[in-house]
Design brief:
Blueprint lengths: L3 H13 L5 E4 L2 E14 L12 E14 L5 E14 L7 E13 L3 E12 L15 E13 L4 E14 L7 E15 L2 E14 L6 E15 L2 E14 L3 E17 L2 E13 L5 E14 L4 E14 L4 E14 L4 E14 L7 E13 L1
C-alpha cells in the first residue's frame, strides 16, 4: 500500500517529533509511534518437511490519534507501516500497512461499540500456507454493536459485522462474510444477565469455494457468575446451509470466562464451536479451547502464558488437531518505551499425510515506542 520511501519519511517525521505528542484540542491528541522487532522463525512456510528458517527484522513507524477524551464518545485511530526484512530469504522482504479504528459511545442508556481495520498480511498460518512462498492478502473488517436499555431489567443489542479476505496470489479463494447478531438481555442479579439471541451470517467464497448461510439460535449469560469470576456465554443450535451439499446442524458455542484470583493476576478460558474456511476454500467445523494467565510481577514487569487446542473437522474425511502455546513478558521501561519478549510453539497433526502436519517455533523480542 505504501512504498519504502513513504516508510522512511514516516520514520524521519517520527524522529523529528520524538517526545512531542501534538494536542489537537477538543479532547484529541496525536502520538508518533514506532515498533522494532527481531524474530527467529524455524519454519517460515509451515512446511511438513525440509523446513526453512529465517530471522526477520520488523521496523514499523506510525501514529496514534486519540479523540473524545473526557466525553461520552471516545476512540482511537492508528496507522503503522510494517517493513519486514528477511536475513536469509531477501525475496520475501515487504512492507505492510496496518490501519485500526475503535470508537466507544456510552451515555448510561445507550452503548455503541464500533471497530474497523485494514491489514495487509504476508505470513503463513494454519489456513494459509505453501511450501515455497508466502501468500500476500488484504484483510478488511468493520463492526458495530448498539445496545439500548429498554426497562430497569431489560436491554437489547443489534450489530453488524463485515469481513473480507482478498488474496493476491492465484490458487487461493477469497472469503467475504457479514453477520447480523441480535441479543435480548434480562437482569436476574445486579451484575448478571440472562440472554436469548439469534445471529444470521452469509458467507461468499471466490472461485473454487462453496457459499453458505448460517443461523445461530442461542441462549446464555453474561456478567458475574461468582466473586471474581465473570463470563459472556452463548450456546445453542448452529445451522449451516451450503449452496452445494445440503444442511449441517451442530452445537454452537461462544464462551469467554475471566477469573481474577488476586488484584495482579487474571486467568481466562475461551471456548468456541463454529464454522470456517481455509485459504483454498475448504470448509470446516472448529472446536477450540484456549486458556491463558497473566500476572503483574511489579508495576513495570508483566508475564503471561497461553495454551490453545483446536479440532478442525472438514466436510471430507480430514481431521486436524492444532496445538499452540506461548509464554511472554512485557517490561515498561518508561512512559515512552515498552519491551516485549515471547516464545510460541505450534503443532498441527492431521489424519491425512497430505494435511498440514507441521511444527513451528518462534522467538521474538520487540521494543514499542509511543511519544
Amino acid at each position: 500500500m505504501k512504498s519504502l520511501s513513504t516508510t522512511l519519511l514516516l520514520g524521519a517525521l517520527l524522529g523529528a517529533t520524538a517526545h512531542a505528542s501534538i494536542d489537537l484540542g477538543n479532547g484529541a491528541a496525536l502520538f508518533p509511534t514506532a515498533t522494532a522487532q527481531l524474530t527467529h522463525n524455524d519454519n517460515i512456510f509451515l512446511s511438513n518437511s525440509n523446513a526453512k528458517s529465517d530471522t526477520i527484522v520488523d521496523l514499523a513507524p506510525g501514529f496514534e490519534l486519540q479523540f473524545g477524551n473526557g466525553s461520552d464518545n471516545k476512540g482511537k485511530l492508528s496507522y503503522d507501516e510494517d517493513v519486514q526484512f528477511y536475513t536469509s530469504h531477501s525475496s520475501l522482504n515487504t512492507g505492510l500497512a496496518l490501519i485500526d479504528l475503535t470508537d466507544r459511545y456510552d451515555d448510561g442508556k445507550m452503548k455503541i461499540n464500533l471497530d474497523g481495520w485494514f491489514h495487509q498480511a504476508n505470513q503463513a498460518n494454519r489456513d494459509v500456507r505453501a511450501n515455497a512462498f508466502l501468500v500476500r492478502r488484504d484483510l478488511e473488517h468493520a463492526g458495530v454493536v448498539d445496545e439500548d436499555v429498554l426497562t430497569e431489567k431489560t436491554s437489547a443489542s443489534l450489530g453488524f459485522t463485515y469481513d473480507n479476505t482478498d488474496y493476491k496470489r492465484t490458487g487461493y479463494v477469497d472469503w467475504r462474510w457479514f453477520e447480523l447478531p441480535f441479543k435480548y438481555y434480562y437482569k436476574v442479579e445486579p451484575k448478571l444477565d440472562l440472554s436469548a439471541g439469534f445471529t444470521y451470517r452469509d458467507n461468499k467464497l471466490g472461485n473454487g469455494g462453496v457459499d453458505s448461510t448460517e443461523y445461530f439460535y442461542n441462549v446464555g449469560v453474561r456478567g458475574e457468575l461468582a466473586p471474581k469470576l465473570t463470563s459472556q456465554v452463548s450456546v445453542g443450535l448452529d445451522q449451516r446451509q451450503l449452496s452445494v451439499g445440503g444442511t449441517q446442524n451442530s452445537l454452537g458455542i461462544d464462551a469467554d470466562f475471566s477469573y481474577a484470583p488476586t488484584a495482579k493476576t487474571s486467568v481466562t478460558l475461551d471456548a468456541r464451536n463454529n464454522y470456517g474456511y481455509t485459504g483454498v476454500g475448504a470448509s470446516y467445523k472448529d472446536f477450540g479451547l484456549q486458556v491463558g494467565a497473566t500476572t503483574n510481577v511489579s508495576d513495570e514487569f508483566k508475564v503471561g502464558a497461553q495454551f490453545g487446542y483446536d479440532r478442525f473437522s472438514y466436510t471430507g474425511r480430514q481431521r486436524d488437531d492444532f496445538y499452540q502455546g506461548q509464554i511472554n513478558g512485557t517490561y515498561l521501561v518508561n512512559a515512552y518505551v515498552t519491551v516485549n519478549g515471547s516464545y510460541t510453539y505450534s503443532k498441527d497433526s492431521s489424519n491425512l499425510t497430505t494435511g498440514p502436519n507441521f511444527t513451528n517455533n518462534i522467538f521474538s523480542v520487540s521494543a514499542v515506542f509511543r511519544y
